[in-house]
Amino acid sequence: MINKKPFIVLHTEKEKMPGCGEDAFAYSFLNDNIGYIGVYDGCGGMGAKKYTLAGNKTGARIASLLAGYVTDDFYNKNLFCFDGKDAERMKREFSINFKKINEYLKSDNSGIKIGGSLFKSIPTTASIVVLRNNDNKSIDCEYIWAGDSRGYFLDNNGICQVTADDLDTVEDAFTNLRSDARMSNVINADNDFWLNEKIINIKLPTAVITSTDGGFAYFNTPMEFEYAILKSLYTAENIYEWQDNIYNYMSEYAGDDFSIIIAVYGFDSFNKMKSYYKSRFEYLYENFISKISGSDEENLKKLWSVYSTSYYRRD
Hints:
Elements: E1 8-14, E2 23-28, E3 34-41, E4 50-51, E5 57-58, H1 59-76, H2 86-106, E6 126-133, E7 138-146, E8 150-155, E9 158-161, H3 176-179, E10 196-203, E11 206-211, H4 213-216, H5 223-234, H6 239-253, E12 258-265, H7 270-292, H8 297-311
Antiparallel strand pairs: 1-12, 2-3, 3-6, 4-5, 6-7, 7-10, 8-9, 8-11, 11-12
Helix pairs in contact: 1-2, 5-6, 5-7
């Protein structure tokens, strides 16, 4: 029997302040050919109020945990259909559950009071990728997201960002590292949100990645996020070292919580996976990473202009 599940599912996360993190994650591959990975970044500024009814957790922390629960419940009920309407159905499930929890939390009048246009009731981003392996030659990937957490895939042509950040200004992955634009859309209990959806087919082998912004937003360029993943792999002897390396590498740069999940398809050994990505790792270093140190902004823009062609190849 052919195994249609991923070769590797890797997850790593870190709380900037232990015990106070507002990122969450969820994933499952219980079904033989359909699974999902998801990360959620509770929006601390919008949802900073703490609730004694929820163990003094912030609204942001409650939101990210709840979003993971709703996604897992949706998956366990076999509701992912790849028909272009999964995001619409998921939005209804999020709305129902977030409203229900918010009604319960409303009875708690303790904690700081927050008002104004920036406040949202239990707000969080989401980046979910549903994965369907039909023939072990390619996988169908359904990206569903809200906010600025991102979904990617990584093959021997490099990393490709599939999702598009929900922002109040037009930015790409390079300019947003400098502008830190405000999000225009997050899941919340006020019901003024939407879920984006994009379905693509990806040839194997590949690694599908989803990350909260703490994983990618503290590098100077988008190229360095890909490099962090590949260098962590290249210097590892097994999956556990790869996972530890990613954690350590990201921890050096991240100024916030981060949560990253990687689902790898198309390999039958760790060494074959390393061999597959070796040429890409070397190309990335020689053509981009080695030129970043000491470069001024104009040269970084030129490097990004070249790199972005591949980075947005499934835009």
